[in-house]
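Subject: Predicted fold for Transcriptional regulator, TetR family, 223 residues

User T.R. writes:
Posting the sequence so we have a shared reference for the thread.
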Amino acid sequence: MEQRQDTSQRGQLTRQALIEAGCLLFGQKGFHLTSTRELASAAGVNQALIGFHFGGKEGLYSAVLDYVEAQLSARLMPSKDTVHGLQASEGTPEERTICSLAIGEMIDNLVDVLIEPELETWVCVILQEQQEDSAAHERVFENFVAPHFACLLDLVSRLRPDSSETDNRLTTTILIGQVLAFRPARSLILKHMKWETIGPEQARAIKDAVRRNVTLPLVSRKE
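User M.O. replies:
I've generated the structure tokens; pasting them so everyone works from the same file.
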């Protein structure tokens, strides 16, 4: 029994090592330019174990996406308390206030995810996939990107009931886009801001600036 547990534990450690290696290499090079030899070397395991645990590179890539999506989703969505507040406030005078707070929370969460060094490999996997024309592109959009856009769109629409769906979708895209710029343009932004890095103080400044910008497109208007 003890030997079985040791074998199972070793298997779990091997799987996790390969997933972490996949996060790093797939995020840096993409699926097509990453070889199984590189993955095994980065994980410090025998190359054959990729097939044993995942059925091949495609299976490992799918497991990496599952892992990254789960880790990032838990950090991006509004807290349970905020969700409960949204449900309880629907149709009440407090609804607009709660919606605004929820949008601010999602924006703060996105800033944290994009600038946190420890999360860089996860973020790069998602961004890399969105630049590739692979079979997983649609899967990443449906399972990860779309739910977050939909959540933010719902909040924006509740704040701007008189605006068209197209206008609210554009507003949602602009809100997310102004935060996403801090990942691919990080080095340029650091030079422009005369920052050496983006630490807690800089992150707070980014969040405050984005929140100020958020209030402008969210002012409900009648056509």
